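anyone seen this seq b4? input:
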Amino acid sequence: MPEWRLPEGGVADFRCDQAAGLRRMFGRSQLRVIAFASGSPGVGKTAIVANVAVALARQGKEVLVVDENRGASGVGSFFGLHPQGELQQVLNRQRRLEHVLFSPVAGVSILPAGCAARQLGCLSPLQQQALLEGVASLERPVDVILVDTSHEHDHGFSPWGLAAGETVIVVSGSGSSITDSYALIKKVSQSLARRHFRILVNRVKNPGDGHVIYGNLRKVAAQRGVAQLEFGGAIPQDEALHRSARLGQAIVGSLPDSPAAVALREFAAELLAWPGAEYEQGGVEQFIRQLLNLSHRLTPRVLHA
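predicted toks r here
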């Protein structure tokens, strides 16, 4: 992978590199894979993924963000950066994985996968091998994979999201967001057999709103036998978050004492304690094998939620 690059005018945070070195010396924790999804665009999902990635990196974790979005809606665009390649080129052996990855801040690497994510179920054996070889060649070990899923899948949900150990549904307080989130949960649960989700409520006006929204979703899902929901947390409505995003900065670094930054750091710390999937113990390569196996076996029934 290329050397870490800092934002213009940025100051190096040597604590991340020091922590990473200590982990390599004394052993590493189990890989965690967390997918973030939403029932509709515009709920702030990508900004949450970007900030959680930076918060984890500042805790000394090496984070890989798999970005399924294309164009201006991608995680790279949040930081004011534009990818120079795509995972599809790695699958076709046109570029090496380290030449496609890019890093907005120390400890965070972004993998643009907008095109490849839609073709995982029909990869040739040679393309599968190219992907496995690519992840095996990573110079820096990965502690956490965050998947920023897209809505543009034939069956409404990403294979990356299905393979992840945890799926976080990001919902805002608007009625349409709540309705769309439930529809997504119902579709994925009934057609793809994903039965557990965590709910992260964004842009709440007061602390109780998050629990109320989650409680309503959980009650309906339980009554109809759709899925098991758990409360993932709530991020307060904070103008400072929008100001940081306009500057291409994560609020957890630029304004660490703001209400949204505090909530995002707490959420990032808590997700590390969530129970992990058994295959995550095998690291990134084992996760990719699980992803490929799942993608090729996936034959969901198309439902209209």
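The domain at 30-297 is CATH 3.40.50.300 (Rossmann fold). The beta strands are 32-37, 63-67, 102-105, 108-112, 144-148, 166-171, 196-204, 228-236. kinda curious what u guys think
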